[in-house]
Amino acid sequence: MRWFCLWGSFASFRERLLPGPSSRVADVEMTSSSESTAVRRGIPAPEVNVTSGRAWDFLMSTVVLCALIIPTLVMTAVVLQEWITRPEQRGWLVLGFGFYIITALRSLWSILIRLCRRMLYIRVEVSRYAATTLFEALTDSLANEAEMQGLTCSWDQEALQEHDKLTGKIKVKLRFWSSQPRNMTIRLRVPKAHGDIELQDTEVERLDLEVQFIPGDDVVCGRDSRLERREVLVLSVRSNPERALSDKEMLVRWMEHAYVHYVKPIEDVVNVYSLQESSSDWVPEWKFERVKPCKNASATGQGFYLERHALYNILADAKLWSQTALRVYMITGPPGVGKSEFTIWIAGQLGIPVYRLCLSSPRLSDDRLAQLFSQSAISFNSILVQVDEFQETLQGWLKSDEKRHSGVSAGGFCEMLQGSTSMSRGVVIITGTSEIVADCVKRRLPAVFRRIHSTAELGWMNPEDIGQYFRRFLCGFIPSCTAEEWESWQRTFLEVESWSGSRHVSIDMLQQYLMHQITECSCLGYGRFVVNDSKFIFRVNDEHIQQVFLKMCNAQDAKIFLDDYSPVALVQKSLLSEA
C-alpha cells in the first residue's frame, strides 16, 4: 500500500511536469510568462530578502578589538613590571617576547583594518584585463585632471611613444601612471540625476574617493611575446547603509561619463580599425590602425571634399535611423570616383569609427565573422563597417563550385546583416564597381540585396564638379585671387578639351593632375614654402599667379598626363559570366 501511494504521488508529479496530449498544444509556443500565470492563478509573487552581514562584521570587529586591547594591556603591564623590578632581565624580555608580540599585534591589527574597511567603505576594482576600455578611460580622466591642476601626485613617470590622435604622428609622452603603485584622493562633484535629466547647475552631489593604482606584474602574452602589465585600479568610498546605493549610483555616473568622454571621437578625424592577428593560427582581433582626417566642403587642397547629390539620401537616412537600427548601404561606381572617401566622410558626419572588413580573406569564416561583430568584440556603441571591393567577394560566391570558395559565405554575410547575431545599430557600407548591381547578380543572390536599404551610384565628374574642384583645390595655394579671377580661370580650365571632351574624369584623376602641376610650378620657382605647425605649405608668389594658371590650363600638359594615367575600365565579363 505504501508503494502504491508513492507511485500515485510520483505519477501526479510527473503529470505536472510533463503535460498530457491535451495540454501539449499550448506548449508549442510559450506565450505566457511564469509571472503572468502566477498572477492569473492568484499566487503571490515570491519575496527576496538579502540578509546583511554587517552585524557579523561588527561582532568580529569587537572580538578582534578586545583580543587586541586586553592582551596588549596585560602584556604591557607585565613587561613594565618586570622591566622595573628586574632590571637585569630586560634584555631577555626583549629577545624572548618582542618578536612574537609585535607579530601577533600586527596580524590582529591588519585583520581589524580589513574588517573596518569592509564595513565602512565601498570598494570598486577595475582591472585592465577584465575591462580594458573602462580602465583606460578612468586612468586617462584622472591623469588629465591631475595634470591640469598641476598635481602629479608623484614625480615618478613612465616614458612611452604613441600616435597623436589629431596629427597621426608618433609622439613621446610621459605616462601619468608608471610601474610603481600610487595613491591619490579626489573629490567628485556629480550633477544629481532625476530620471534621464541631469540638473547641471542646481543640484550637485559630492563624493570623496580614494584611488589606489596597483601596477601588478609584467606578463608575456601571445606568441608575439608582447609585454603587458596586470594593472588594477581600486576605488574606495567611505559610506554607510543609508547612502550606499546613492554612492554607488554616483560612482556609476562618473565612470559612465569618463567612458563616454574617452570613446568620443575627436573632431575632424576618424579612427580606422582593422583585423590583425599575432599568429597565423590565432583568431584575428580588431586593432586600431590609423587616424584619417575628415574632409569637408569648406576646406582647400587635399582636405576638400566634393559633396555629391546622389549621396544626400544615404546621409539623411543614416542620421535618422543608424542610432536605433543597423542600416546597410551600397555605393557603386568606377574606380577613383570617391567611394572610399565617402565612407570616411559619412563616418566623420556621424561621429563613429570605421571598421574595415575583407570578406574574401581566407582567414575569415562565418563563425569568426559573427564572433568579431559580437558586443564583446567591439568597444563602441555604434560603428561603420566598410566592405570594400565587393565585386571580388561576389565573384567567389557566384562560382559553380561553392566548396572551393574561401572566406565568408553569402549566408554568413546575410546573418551578419540581418539575423539573430546582427548588430543592433550602426552602418554598413558596401562599395564596388557598377557590375555588382547587375540584374543577373541580383537574381543569383536575392537574400543579400534584400538586406540593402539604400543604393547610390557615383559617376564621372560633370563640368560643374570639375570647375568646383579646380577652384577649391587651388585656392589654398593662391589665396590672393579675387572671385572674378577665379571664375575667369574656371571657364578657361573647362575649355580645355581633355576636361570638356568625351573623356571620363574621376576625382582621383583630377586630383593627381593638379598635384602634378603644382609640383611643376614649385620646381619652376613660382612660389615659396611656408612652415606652419611643422608642415611645409606652398604659396604661389603674386607675380607668378598668371604663369601658374597658364600651367594649369595647358592643354598639352593635360593630354600627356591623362594618356599616361592608368586606364580606368569596367571589367565586367568575369563577374557577369559567373552570374
TrEMBL record:
Residues 330-435 form the ATPase AAA-type core domain. Keywords: Membrane, Transmembrane, Transmembrane helix. Pfam families: AAA. The chain crosses the membrane at residues 58-80, 92-112. It comes from the Eukaryota. SUPFAM superfamilies: P-loop containing nucleoside triphosphate hydrolases (SSF52540). This is ATPase AAA-type core domain-containing protein.
